[in-house]
Amino acid sequence: MTITVRYFASLREALGPQEQVAFEPGLTVGGLRDALIAKDEAHAQALARGRAVRCALNQVMAREDAMVPEGAEVAFFPPVTGG
């Protein structure tokens, strides 16, 4: 399954604006975050479990237990992104 992962604010500065990611079906938003943390040092630092990171699934705020469907867009961003 392929999904689009988008990053905003400081996460965008660290990881770029977006990436396409392939995963097995049954993935949750939290599982995606954990997999990205394991990907490399840049992702590990930006998405670390000790950091406050908000998530959106298909442009709707989501909890980490939300299931990610095929073709979804998952966005990660800090709690305050400015305006």
TrEMBL record:
The keyword Nucleotide-binding applies. GO terms for biological process: Mo-molybdopterin cofactor biosynthetic process. It comes from Roseateles depolymerans. GO terms for molecular function: nucleotide binding. Keywords: Nucleotide-binding. Transmembrane segments: none annotated. Belongs to the MoaD family. CDD domains: Ubl_MoaD. It comes from the Bacteria. The keyword RNA-binding does not apply. This is Molybdopterin synthase sulfur carrier subunit. GO terms for cellular component: molybdopterin adenylyltransferase complex. InterPro entries: Beta-grasp_dom_sf, MOCS2A, Mopterin_synth/thiamin_S_b, ThiS/MoaD-like.
